[in-house]
Amino acid sequence: MNSSKLRPFTLASSLALSLSIAAVAAGCGSSSSSAAPSSGDAGVDGASAGGEGGSTAPVAGLKPNEWVWAPVAGAYCRDGSDTGFAVSLASPPSDKLMIYFEAGGACMDQFFCSAIATPVTFGASEFTSWKAHSGSAPSMPDTGLFNRGDAANPVAGWNMVYIPYCTGDIFSGANPNGMVPNVGPQKFVGYTDVHLDLERIVPTFPGTTKVLLSGSSAGAYGAVANYVQTTRAFGGSTSVYLLGDSGPPLEAPYVANCAQTQLAGLWGKDGALADCGSDCSNPNSYFTDFTKHLTKTYPTMPFGLVSSTQDQIMGLFFGYGNPGNCVDSALPTSTLPGATYQAGLQDAEMKLAGAPNWGAFLYAGTQHTSVETTATLDANSTNVTASLLEPDGGAPPDAGTIKLTDWIATLVNEGKVSNVGP
User: Which CATH number goes with the domain that contains 326?
Assistant: First the structure.
């Protein structure tokens, strides 16, 4: 895959439409390789980002509304190359911060590691290419939640951090010696990397009163996986809210039991799972149990999910191992039918019904992700409106609609969430 291109969903979208070897081969390239650590990233934007100041130094050289690369000592992609994060300072100054985890799939066997929608390297040179797309439409980093010119964007005036995805472990891993059959050694250190990122992020934004952890797809799970250590890093005086896009907490039978066990073993239980403790002792329900743990442990903090009802890409992800046969293959094992995926979402809502600080914005369709790559969050009304539900789950006769931007604004401004959707 050409890492100079905008990355989030081009390959993933093609997989949803055509699960063929040709589609995989067209975009895989070096994703399954284990390259030597990169030595060419340190010079690009390194000085302006405070790269010589040590792993805990604030990011220097920040300019309002400009993206700056911050290298992080000891942070690696799954191929062993150096990585870091990008920072954009708000203007006028803000005491609020959004930390966003990039989308991109999951490396769990030959097929998924090869078809992953992000390359295995994201350092300063890749950041320069990413940044160069600014101003072209549609593009990152100027769309969706990053669109500072969108008056409806609830976080348009916030400071922003963009954590790129190159570890393949939904930002949850702490296993530097991972091994995937027919792929090779992988550094599954997403959780470890975020710990190092936070050592630079926190001193860069002193006086922060509110943090929004957000992300799409793999990044949505990354926001969940790193919630505890983010809260810990910012201390008790900073509120940490969560908004996950296209990363629902499903459990069996919508997720194969063998898949959850396999992923925990592959990516390492000493990462995010360690923060969940005994609440995540059941290997068959990690996704759901981790979310329950957060809502219980932080009862005053809001946790929100955005998803289409029949997301094709997540149907492929959750089809892994179903109906219980986790195998290493060059082709996916199965894909959850749309109706089954929707049933899984509704099951998740039921499992979390006792948590008033968790809510989901569900809209009809098969779209994958909603908040990262839309030029304006309300650009397509079919993607961002949904019927309001009564508390008993039934739609009232005069059901209205609610915009995604309004729903997000309620979450970030009032700390409240609701269940909206079919």
Answer: 3.40.50
Residue 185 tokens, joined: 């050694």
In-domain check, residue 77: no
- Cβ atoms of 5 and 116 within 8 Å: the answer is no
Instruction: Give the chain's domain count.
Output: 1
* Token pair 């209205």: residue: 400
Written as one string, the DSSP assignment of 95-123 is: SEEEEEEPP----SSHHHHHH-SS-S--S
SS3 label, residue 341: helix
Partnered with residue 305 across adjacent β-strands are: 244, 360
DSSP string, 343-381: HHHHHHHHHTTT-TTEEEEEESS----SSSS-SSTTS-H
Q: How many CB atoms lie within 10 A of CB 299?
A: 10
Compute the residue count for the chain: 422
The answer to whether residue 318 sits within a structural domain is yes
Provide the pLDDT for residue 403.
83
From CA 250, how far away is CA 352, in angstroms rounded? 11
DSSP string, 230-265: HHHHH-TTSEEEEEEES-----TTSS-HHHHHHHHH
Domain annotation covers residue 312: yes
* Residue 404 domain-assigned (yes or no): yes
The tens digit of pLDDT for each residue in 27-84 reads 332 333 333 223 233 223 333 344 334 578 999 999 999 999 999 999 999 999 999 9
Task: Give the predicted TM-score (pTM) of the model.
Answer: 0.84
The whole-chain average pLDDT of the chain stands at 80
Residue 103's domain spans which residues?
A: 91-117+145-414
Alpha-carbon distances, residue 337 vs 186, 257, 344 (angstroms): 31, 18, 11
The contacts found for 322-329 with CB under 8 angstroms, 24 or more apart, are 322/253, 322/256, 323/256, 324/256, 324/257, 324/258, 325/256, 325/258, 326/256, 326/258, 326/259, 326/262, 327/109, 328/109, 328/110, 328/180, 328/181, 328/182, 329/109, 329/110, 329/111
- Hey, what's the torsion of the CAs at 64, 75, 247, 112, to 10 degrees? 130
